[in-house]
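Researcher: Re-running this chain for the archive, since the previous output was lost when a drive failed. Same request as before.
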Amino acid sequence: MSDQRRRNLCCVRLAAEFTTEPYHGEGTPPAHAQRSWDVIQQAGLPGEFGPLGTRFSGEVDEVLDTLRAVLAAAIDAGAHRVTVQIEPEE
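Model: Regenerated structure tokens:
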């Protein structure tokens, strides 16, 4: 990729959305979902916790570093799968 086409990510904000599985339906969220949300709150990033997905955002390094910790926490707490989507925030 040429330098002209390469995007500088230093000033980009990202939004990450992820779902941890298995999903147990209504009621208390599974430990892997709750532990993932705890990581985001400890990082101090804005986000939304939901039964079918959790979303958070921040500067590129904040999101990528936090996402690494989220994945580790989810898997450590019993997640069999974590599906992730990342997109730039406009």
